[in-house]
Amino acid sequence: MKLEKITKKTETRSRRHYEDACAAAHALDLVGERWALLVMRELMLGPKRFSDLRESLPGISANVLTQRLESLEGAGVLMRRRLPPPAAVQVYELTAWGYESEPIFQALGRWAARSPLHDPTLPFSAASFLLSLRTMLDVTRAEGLEARIGFRLSDTETFLAHLAGGRIDIARGPVDDASLIFTGTPPVLAGAIYGGQPLEALEGAGALKLEGDRTLAERFVRLFPLPPKASLPT
Asked: Is residue 3 scored above 60 in pLDDT?
């Protein structure tokens, strides 16, 4: 019986580890399981409750999410903490080292955006949309532009972006002091920014609401050009 337990433990380890000293292989040991990277993506803009993570990742089961959170916590990528009263709820958040992984998401995003098989009509979360802005911002187009831009993506999710110095920083929070506020779902805003859908048409359809500097809005949606698609081999 003891031997059986040892064998099962060894088999489990061999399934989850590459037994390779390469740092890239070790990275896959840490975050290579299905859903792990997407859990990290959802935490890139700040802590979330378990229920919030499930809502933003509708394809994941509660059991698998629990497993991924435990695995990432054990690896030092994220941690749990309890918010002070009156909230007094448990949240998950990336560690300082976990936040260092954002360039990985940016590199993967730029690379995969060139895929001829990428389907932009599939669902995506608020975190996915906002991280895409940090990934796709064209420094040349944004040169000399400084602005605070608010996003109301749902009844409960508001974010404030600070565009300056050829970069865009985004954080959860109130949008009252923004020069421009977009109100709409992530797919609608992505349609304006990446799909070239006219702002006036989206407003007319009731899908988008703009408040503030409209000239800034027209310029902002053109700051994020997509890379050209790669060709499939013939």
From this structure: no
